[in-house]
Amino acid sequence: MNVDWAFAEAIRNTRVPPNSKVHLLYDIYCQWSIHWAERMQRNPHLTLPSGIEVDGGIGLFHVHGHREECLYRYATYFVPEAAVVDGEVLERLWSVLNLVSRSTRTATLAHRAEILDDHMSDNNWKKMIGIGGL
Q1: Domain span including residue 60
Q2: Sequence-distant (≥ 6) Cβ neighbours of residue 32 within 8 angstroms
Q3: pTM for this model (two decimals)
């Protein structure tokens, strides 16, 4: 239920244009996607823009822990138009943010959000300036 709502809200709030294709990479996409369309229809709070086509997969680190048929069906290198992506970027970011968590425990909600946003922006900056280097 939480992932259904988070996904619908992410699509709605990022202003994905109607008639677009969206790729969702989720560690347990193979199970989550089974009755997803029915859950969306039953819940009036879950809406997507018209014509959105959802395709999904499982990050390359996690898919190898699934059954063999999941590998060929949901690994990103077998999903059409998914390009070459491992789908694990957020998990690598958490290892850095876990170190910051000690200093955010006593912060207010707004201050905690600012601290985490600053650290994520710093991480993105470091990735961006290091893209061309070897």
Answers
A1: 2-74
A2: 3, 26
A3: 0.62
